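Fig. S4 source data, part A: sequence.
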Amino acid sequence: MKFDLNKGIAILERTPVILEAFLKDLSEEWTLSNEGGDSWSPFDVVGHLIHGEKTDWIQRMKIILGEGPGKTFAPFDRFAQFESSKGKSMNELLDEFKERRAENLAILKSMKLSEDKFILKAIHPGLGEVSMKQLFSAWVAHDLGHIAQISRVMAKQYKEEVGPWNEYLTVMHR
């Protein structure tokens, strides 16, 4: 599918609703469990999404739209949620994510970006030169990837309980 801002916004608007329907009022056994090791729980993922809303997508859009040379993104702390989510409940995180996403989408829509803006570029500290179109496409794919991650982490909580069906449940093997 070719990049289309309105189609992307349609996904970005739904992510908070999906996560709220999926995770609100669930037990901590569901929301704090992970896949072992350094993997993330659904709680961690929602915290990560909030951090992205605060420091990533819209801030990077503004850098790309900025004037002059040296348009370089600050590094993104992929683990900031571990500190910033301390003491909060899943429901609080879901509410914060919904609010922050609504604010960011309102900013994005208010920009009324023309097609020529999507080819503008800046420098990502790890990836090099990236365009606005790539930034917005990554935002959408990032949301979808984390929705899939949350589903996978939760499904694996029943890995032993599904018994012989484990063989047929591909989500258990990713």
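Fig. S4 source data, part B ends here. The first strand starts at residue 121 and ends at 124.
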